[in-house]
Amino acid sequence: MESQESIDSPKNPAPRLKVVPPNQIKPLTSSPAAQKLPVPAQLPTQPEATLPIPQNGGSGGDGGSSKTQNVLNKIPHSLIMVGSIAAVLAVIGMYPLNYSIKPISAAAEPNPDPTKVRKLSAHQGSIVKEISETRELKKGDVVISTVDPQQEEKFRKIENDISDAQSQKRSAQEEESTKRRELEQANSGYRSAVNSLEQSQRALAISPIMAVHEAKINKLRQEQSSLGAQLASKQGILAKYKELESEGGMGRIPVINIEIEVSQIEGRISSLEAEMLQVEAEKSVAVEQLLKRVQEDSDRVTEKGAAQDTAEQELNRSSQKVREFDIKINQLEKEKAYQKDQKEAQTLLAPFDGVAELKEIQGYLDQKLPKSIDVFYYSPNDMMAKLEVDQIDHCQLQKVENVTFVPNGGIEYKGKIYRIENEIKVNPNNPSQRSATVWIKLDNPNSELTMGMTGQAALNLGQEQIYKIVWRELYKLVAPFQSIPDVRTCK
Prior knowledge:
There is one protein chain. By secondary structure, this protein is of the alpha+beta class. A hairpin with a 2-residue loop joins strand 15 and strand 16. Helices cover 50% and strands 20% of the residues. The longest helix has 94 residues, at 252-345. Helix 5 runs antiparallel to helix 6. The protein has helices at residues 39-42, 61-73, 77-94, 149-206, 208-247, 252-345, 391-394, 466-478; strands at 16-19, 49-52, 98-100, 104-108, 111-112, 118-122, 127-131, 136-137, 142-147, 347-349, 354-356, 373-378, 383-390, 402-407, 413-427, 430-442, 455-460, 463-465.
């Protein structure tokens, strides 16, 4: 037999395939299940061999047959043994023997479900006045209570401002009441003045004194008119008598008599005129008195109207002050309510029955916080853990029968798979290493599992037929060179 030559030998220009004995095969996956593969460890040690790779299209022609024969002559006994093992596995597959599958194990850190954690924040600069003495709380229990000195000062100032504004409002309301009474009095005085003016105007229009004077004047005018007619008649007769006297046809006596009558009539007419003037004078005096009263009443109406306007304006100003104080008080009350809410918000209450993580804030009782601190509050029934499992193991998750978690130095806790993520993560430093994320939910009846714990989680797969386990482990050995199964179908 020819001596075996290295694949890199210059005497062998044809490319060669390096054959490695099974006992020197190293797993190319980080899966824990790969560590239990029994086949390579039980095979005897064989030297390495190299197989030449034909360059001219296989065994066509004489040259091809010669090269093929050389290849067959160089096949090591180890390959024959591997083939034999495969045949044995095929036989085993005909007889389904079960084997307890090694659990999928991974490091885990229990944490509450992030979607159900409440974050209770104590702000920087506030003084911690109260911290719960126990982690386990009932709904409404005080978790922590803080006080902001500046906020307390602002709250007291707002209360003082409200008290001052309320006092000023009461004064404004008293002034408003006074101005309202003054306006009512002014309205009453104005109405009285208007009524008096209306009465004086009616008196001026229908006064009995005016009627008497008018009647006297009318009577005197009638008498004056009658005397005027008599005077004209007598004057005509007198003229005729004087004409007859001048002709000698009448004596002097009749003429004198007519002259006396005319003189009497004229005297009476003059007396009537004097009486009429007297009555007119009396009438004017009465009218002036009535007009004076009307004017006085009119002036009083104007005065009372002005007083009414002034009282109304003062009342409006007083009412405006009250409204302004109302607005100010409302604004201060809103600010007070906001500050009260902020103050109450600093008393953080348990939103439900659960557990509070108080380690970070416990050292600040009666101290001013140098930074803001978040207290995480959650239900102990919402504890979960995130595991990173090998992609090949990922396809076994549907067979998980139960889940356990053991904290470092602690007791075992039960659990179950909560969510399996389909996204595959590739190790950038080693693309053949791929993993998937699995979330498990843990039982925590005594609230002993807390944030920050570490431990080991195990996904127990139960039993499986041996030949399937062996075939899967063999598949893992070559998985880096094969297509990775789809995690959604595991095909």
